[in-house]
Amino acid sequence: MAEFAFHHCGVSVPSLDAAIEWYGRVLGFAVEKRFHIAAAGAEAAMVRKGQLRFEIFEVKGAAPLPDDRRHPPADLKTHGNKHVAFRVEDLEEFLAEMEAKGADVAFVVREAFGKGCFLRDCAGNLIEFVEEPTP
Questions:
Q1: For 41-82, what is each residue's pLDDT tens digit?
Q2: Which of 42, 56, 62, 110 is the most exposed place for a label (fewest CB within 10 A)?
Q3: Which InterPro entries does the entry link to (predicted)?
Q4: Degrees to nearest 5, angle at CA 61 with 60 and 62
Q5: Domain covering 64-135: architecture
């Protein structure tokens, strides 16, 4: 089988500038490049933190994120891509940092199988952060 590796996650937002600010201020991503995608009528940016990347799109006239896509249990009831997830060392420390930054914490899970949380970005898109259980 051909080898491949993760490259980026794509997210559509109503304001590219607001999303660049949010991903930088809240999660520490920096703009790698900005560009126009003529075929989609999109202004876009690739933001990066280490090896992690988000490709952010602003398309004039795009429909807003439906309310059921903003809450993890409801979102699972619609087929399609759901979210991207990142590992954190300490969920409680991460949550305290995110709350101090004013992040929108959508959902927190503290179960025997593991702990995690979902944030909503400035457009309501879900991003998961997981603390893996110690063996």
A1: 999 999 999 999 999 999 999 999 999 999 999 999 999 888
A2: 110
A3: Glyas_Bleomycin-R_OHBP_Dase, MMCE/EMCE_epimerase, VOC_core
A4: 95
A5: Roll (3.10)
User: What are the boundaries of each domain within the chain?
Assistant: 1-63, 64-135
DSSP the chain: --------EEEEES-HHHHHHHHHHHH--EEEEEEEEGGGTEEEEEEEETTEEEEEEEETTPPPPPGGGGSHHHHTTS-S---EEEE-S-HHHHHHHHHHTT-EEEEEEEETTEEEEEEE-TT--EEEEEEPPP-
- For residue 44, list its beta bridge partners: 35, 57
